[in-house]
Amino acid sequence: MKINGIHHVSSIVGHAQRNLDQYAGVLGMRLVKKTLNFDDSSTYHFYYGNEDGSSNLLTTFPWNDAVDGKVGSGQVGITSLAVNVGTLDDWQARLNQFKLESTLSVKYGQKTLSFEDIDGLKYELVESDKLPNSKWEFNGVDKNHAIKGIERVTLFSRIPQTTIELFKTIFNYEVVSENDEAVLLQVSEDLGGTLEIIKEKVELGQQGVGTVHHLALSIDNGDEDAWVSKLQAAGYRPTEVKDRKYFRSIYFREKGGILIELATVKPGVLVDESEENLGSELLIPPHYEIIREEIEATIMPVTVREVDKLEGYGYRDMYEYNLLREKARLKEDLLALKNQKTLSAEDVYKISELKKAIIKVK
Question: Taking Cα atoms as reference points, which of 315, 311, 324 lies closest to residue 358?
Fold first, then answer.
């Protein structure tokens, strides 16, 4: 019974289409699953990874009208993503193109590019020679520059030493580097096998847009019940085993305030889609099937698309999306009439009616 490393990191973000434009369009990751939050039928749950979803994953919950959170203790503070050695200068130029500020540094001997996404989540791109490389290419991010997966995370704990002891004694991580500010722990030499814990207690975090919801660690299939027993014996209060379709999970909040999930390796994201079609359809969890028509009629339409900038997004659901489309159509019709060299009385009347219609859909 062991921890294999990081399974996924789940974060709260804002506008759903803007999140897709950032993670697929800017970062070049593949959307490998488009589903719904198991506990909220009105909220998407996006999964991002490599070409076949076999890497560890970033997942997001878009909360369009939620308040901004605050990164602090009791949370994952930074998520570090692995890229090939020699690519960070290109990545910095790309982030600059999309008006995302970044800073180059060296951390644990690795060249690192730090930035925040548009929702305020803190990321690092880290040069790493760990394999496998991603084969996915999209919107100008080729295979050589593609994000491989999660290299490590940085944890901000309310009780740092207690969190360090949890990872050392219960999860069998070993200290591989330490300084006055942080300790680097490792459970595997593979991608996602390390994590960093800041030693000093930072200001208390607040959940909301721009914060990590939970960290998931990978466990072997069949070990779920044993992990429940082990955590209970250590004084923690894990949930029952939950079937999340793509993995089986247990959750608990460690004593430093961080919500941790233990998730099985299998069955994985290919259980209900072929590799070719990953992320192409909205896959509704079985317990929401009874309200499928309502969900499809109201949830915000989203698409993976190539982008050259991150624009404002003036809609929150299907109703507002359709209003904006109708307004744009009316404006096109109005412009076409105004551009005519001569206007008949009927044309003047149509212009008047179009102006009224545009006002109505504001």
Answer: 324
